[in-house]
Amino acid sequence: MLRVEAPARLHLGMLAVAGDGERRFGGLGVSVRRPAVVLEAEPAGELSAEGADAERALAFARRCQDALGLAGGAHLRVVEAIPQHVGLGSGTKLALAVAHALAALEGRDVEAPGLAQAAGRAARSAVGLWTFALGGLVVEGGHRPGVERPAPLLAHHPMPAEWRAVLVLPAAAPGLSGGAEEAAFGQLAPAPDRSAVIAQLVLTALLPALVERELEEFGAALTRVQQLVGDSFAAAQGGRFHPRAGPLVEALLGFGAAGAGQSSWGPTVYGVVGSDAAGQELARRMEELVGGEGSVELVAFDNRGARIERS
């Protein structure tokens, strides 16, 4: 039996959302330890699945079996799943875990970009792919029109072990997905000035601050990137952030987060702090604010990526 654990990711923003240059999208994100996909797989006569997200896991398995030319079957058990359509990368992490497990059962060593292509993921954003492979914070370079392969990895750096994220998932409508998401991207207007500022912030503030472990500089750059990215999607989601997310982002900053924002389309929001103690205090205050209308979780960052064990 194989066991694959694939932690969730926070999508921290896109570099060029509307194709202002030779490439479109690009982006940055970071892996967090919780929540996670936990998948068990063992050889079987045919493909089958059980547990949370079983139908989706089975659909990914059938696609991967055909794409990778795998002969054997497998029984999949989804022990844990990441909540769907809340901004934590549930689909990509499940798809890659399934592809990785099926390939490993047949002794195949397929690199992460190949797994993503087999599973039909990373067509727009490769943040989920590279955090699956590496953990930590990643920056990917976007797509050229007409080129069907995952965007290249530009930068990867581990997160400081003592830093934490407070995740807040309000009881709210899910973020955009499927056809609504496609339509939203199709309506985006190029904003080269905004894209230039985002790229400058990532290259000259956020990444250097991460390397030098300067939390306040990192947080300020991240918050500003999130605001600019949110402005790009304001028409599609009814404001800079998801309607329930905006006040929570402001609360996270007001309660002491060094940086805060919305992951992907939300409604999950996050605040970054410098220690477990600071995280516990921030989580306590956010729990008081949210009450019974959502959940709050203090999580560590993940610097290992997906893990596979054999038993």
* Spatial separation of the terminal alpha carbons: 5 Å
Q: Helical content, roughly?
A: 25-40%
Strands, count: 11
Tally of DSSP helical segments: 10
- Roughly what fraction of the amino acids lie in strands? 25-35%
Structural class: alpha+beta
Using the alpha-carbon principal axes, give the shape: globular
- The overall pLDDT average reads 93
- Low-pLDDT parts are none
H-E string: EEEHEHHHEEEHHHHHEEHEE
Using the CA coordinates, give the radius of gyration. 19 Å
Biggest sheet record: 7 strands, mixed
In oligomeric terms, what are we looking at? single chain
Description:
With 311 residues, the chain is an alpha+beta fold. 40% of the residues lie in helices and 27% in strands. It contains ten helices and eleven strands. It has helices spanning 54-68, 90-105, 112-119, 127-134, 178-186, 192-211, 215-232, 234-237, 245-254, 276-290; strands at residues 2-16, 25-44, 47-51, 73-80, 137-140, 153-157, 164-170, 259-262, 269-273, 294-300, 307-310. The strands form two sheets. Strands 1, 2, 3, 4, 5, 6 and 11 form a seven-stranded mixed sheet that branches. A four-stranded antiparallel sheet has the order 8-9-7-10. α1 (54-68) crosses α2, α1 (54-68) packs across α3 and α6 runs antiparallel to α7 (215-232). The longest helix has 20 residues, at 192-211. The model has no long low-confidence stretch (mean pLDDT 93).
Write the layout of secondary structure elements.
Elements: E1 2-16, E2 25-44, E3 47-51, H1 54-68, E4 73-80, H2 90-105, H3 112-119, H4 127-134, E5 137-140, E6 153-157, E7 164-170, H5 178-186, H6 192-211, H7 215-232, H8 234-237, H9 245-254, E8 259-262, E9 269-273, H10 276-290, E10 294-300, E11 307-310
Parallel strand pairs: 3-4
Antiparallel strand pairs: 1-2, 1-11, 2-4, 2-5, 5-6, 7-9, 7-10, 8-9
